[in-house]
Design a protein that fits this description.
flat, five-stranded antiparallel sheet, alpha+beta
């Protein structure tokens, strides 16, 4: 029967078990891990960071190019406006108006300023003279820059003119603007066959006479459609020779809407891509949302690192785009080459390190195998087997020596174990006696518990008896007072007897009060008096001063309370001392203790006083805050009973007050005692008066 190959899962399991049992396999995995795991991770991180840096670098570079192109474009617009404004304010124009040489001046000015048209308008914006085909009287005031010049302010801006508007200025301008649309991949569908709109630099300036009165408006403009000198100048400024790597080329384009009307992007050799259109993604971001595009884009027939910004007319409408960019392929090739070189170097370093580490690992394998053989001999019963001296002088040599000492110690322990076995019975007997004593102690504790329960029952009975005595005592006292009033002077012979009866009734009342305190201490708030909390706090500081000095705690006092509260002074001092001691224990290395008193605003709460004990100690964890007043809960496991805060909370609660806490771990805690000026007694059973 032919043998079948093991299932992949079983083979993987056996390999995993072999690695788990063999130090040699673990060391080999440790050596090969940098190559098998570290190298792909490093290459992935290198590739990711390289791509991220590359995109940031390209975006920063093309954004800088766009800024340069935008600056030149703005200077050209300002230059046209400045030329028109200068001619409007010139003495030459004033003489031409006076001597009737205006047509010749307009023609000369148009040529000197490199304008496509130059018109003189009256003060209302109607044509007086035109270097183009505009008829006298034609209305030009609807153009924003002309309307602004009519209002005595020179202006220049980009305008988009339709075919009729261009033909009205000069039919030649309409012919220059007409451009067949070329089908372009990735562009938004457009049913038109040609582009007839024009993009103008439009400028106008007011003309004044010698008296400073506006008499006319000078209007001029340049058609940018097909203006290749303008776009080539932008390209030459932005992408000077040597600024791009070999194989890349810079390009610049001016768009009307999404159609290229002036560009040095080539459709094919020797033919510029006039009439081609931008991709739908770029159009949506730049023209529709008004955002700048700074990333790779498909331009006509290749990928370019591109920057597009909207061109806005005088009305604030987006009428076109300005573009600069450069061919991405050389940069992408350079990036890929750099990453491959870095990867190859990393791989060579990893391989060299793996080879050297394998050689060093061999010096570790041999001592480990020797120690393993010694362990097997000892396990087989050869107690005298030892590793002996390895001679490597490293940690393994010291480990072998330590292993031999361990075997010697083990042999000694075996001898001691035999001796200990002999005394085991005696120790068992001793432990049995200890257990019997512990059982006896447990029985004693049980008896004490039963006694406590009996005392509690007696307390309940005593409380009932005390209450029953109170009723006849009150009757006796009332009738005694009535008897004294009724007899008046006739009671004088028995005045001494009446006094004795009165004293004995008072004594009965005192006995009843003590019985009630014994039976239900939680229902009896003690003898209260009007207490000055500032004085009480000062007395507590005197009592705790040795504790404060021993722990190097600085005390700050802000005592602003003026209201006296009705409370038992000793119980209040018990609470305050407990809070001060707890605060000191929270600052084992010293710190500051801040004691504050303040009156409660009657508009916010019942009249009373707030006493705050604030420390700079270790604070209380958030999960402990809800349990901090629970009986027997403490964060100090080796000291305290966990009753201090519970008792303090109960004592203050008797009088209608409360204790709150706020704490931040590592920043300290603040306990605030809220006391009412007039107590509102509660009937809850108080906790035993003990300090945690």
């Amino acid at each position: 029967m032919p043998l079948r190959p093991a299932a992949p899962g079983r083979a993987w399991g056996r390999a995993r078990d072999a690695v788990r049992r063999s130090v040699r396999a673990k060391l080999l995995c440790l050596v090969l891990a940098p190559l098998l795991l570290g190298f792909p991770i490093i290459m992935g991180l290198l590739w990711y960071s390289g791509e991220l840096y590359y995109h940031r670098l390209m975006a920063s570079r093309v954004n800088s190019d766009l800024s340069a192109a935008h600056g030149y474009f703005a200077r050209v617009i300002d230059g046209v406006g400045g030329g028109v404004e200068g001619l409007a304010a010139s003495h030459e124009l004033a003489l031409a108006l006076a001597e009737g040489r205006l047509p010749a001046l307009l023609a000369a000015g148009q040529g000197r300023l490199a304008l496509d048209f130059l018109n003189l308008l009256d003060a209302e914006g109607r044509v007086l003279h035109s270097s183009a085909a505009l008829e006298p009287g034609a209305e030009r005031g609807t153009w924003p820059v002309v309307a602004q010049a009519v209002r005595a302010a020179a202006a220049s801006a980009i305008e988009r003119a339709g075919p009729e508007a261009l033909a009205a200025i000069d039919p030649a301008l309409r012919a220059r603007a007409r451009l067949p649309l070329v089908a372009t991949a990735r562009a938004r569908p457009d049913p038109r066959r040609e582009e007839e709109r024009g993009l103008l630099i439009h400028a106008a300036a007011p003309v004044y006479d010698d008296g400073g009165r506006q008499i006319a408006v000078l209007e001029g403009g340049v058609l940018l459609n097909g203006n290749l000198d303008f776009i080539d100048t932008i390209n030459a400024i932005v992408y000077r020779a040597g600024t791009l790597p070999t194989g890349s080329e810079g390009t610049a384009t001016l768009f009307v809407d999404d159609v290229r009307i002036a560009t040095n992007v080539r459709l094919f050799e020797g033919v510029r891509a006039l009439g081609t259109r931008v991709s739908a993604e770029v159009r949506g971001q730049v023209l529709e949302r008004g955002e700048t595009w700074l990333e790779t884009a498909f331009v006509v027939n290749d990928w370019y690192v591109s920057a597009y910004e909207p061109v806005v007319d005088s009305r604030g409408e987006r009428v076109g785009m300005l573009y600069v960019g450069f061919l991405e392929a050389p940069f992408r090739a350079a990036k890929r080459t750099a990453l491959l070189v870095a990867g190859a170097v990393s791989l060579l370093i990893s391989l060299a390190g793996a080879v050297l580490t394998l050689r060093w690992a061999r010096s570790i394998f041999r001592p480990i195998e020797r120690m393993h053989a010694t362990i097997e001999r000892v396990g087989a019963g050869e107690e005298a087997a030892r590793v002996r001296h390895i001679g490597s002088g490293d940690e393994l040599d010291r480990l072998a020596a330590g292993f031999d000492r361990l075997l010697d110690t083990l042999a000694d322990k075996r001898a001691e174990l035999r001796a200990l076995n002999a005394s085991l019975d005696r120790r068992v007997a001793e432990r049995t006696a200890d257990l019997a004593a512990a059982n006896e102690a447990l029985r004693t504790a049980q008896r004490q518990l039963v006694m406590s329960e009996k005392l509690a029952a007696i307390g309940e009975l005593t409380a009932g008896v005390a209450h029953e005595i109170s009723n006849p005592t009150a009757v006796i006292q009332g009738n005694l007072d009535l008897l004294r009033e009724e007899l008046g002077a006739a009671a004088q012979p028995v005045a001494n007897e009446i006094r004795l009866i009165h004293e004995q009734v008072h004594r009965i009342r005192l006995i009843v009060t003590k019985l009630l305190q014994f039976a239900r201490p939680g229902e009896f708030a003690g003898y209260v008096a009007a207490v000055d909390v500032n004085a009480a706090l000062a007395d507590c500081l005197v009592l705790t001063r040795p504790h404060l000095s021993r722990h190097d705690v600085r005390v700050e006092q802000v005592l602003s309370a003026r209201t006296r509260v009705q409370i038992n002074l000793q119980e209040l001092q018990q609470v305050l001392i407990n809070l001060i001691v707890n605060a000191v224990q929270a600052m084992p290395d010293g710190g500051s203790l801040r004691l504050e008193t303040a009156d409660v605003d009657p508009t916010d709460d019942l009249p009373g006083v707030r006493i705050t004990v604030r420390d700079s100690g270790i604070g209380i964890r958030a999960e402990d805050l809800d349990r901090i007043f629970d009986p027997f809960f403490t964060t100090r496991k080796r000291q305290g009973t966990g009753l201090g805060l519970s008792i303090s909370h109960t004592l203050i609660g008797r009088y209608g007050g409360r204790i709150t806490v706020a704490s931040t771990p590592g920043a300290g805690s603040a306990f605030t005692v809220h006391l009412l000026a007039e107590p509102q007694y509660r009937n809850e059973v108080a906790a035993p008066c003990a300090r945690g």
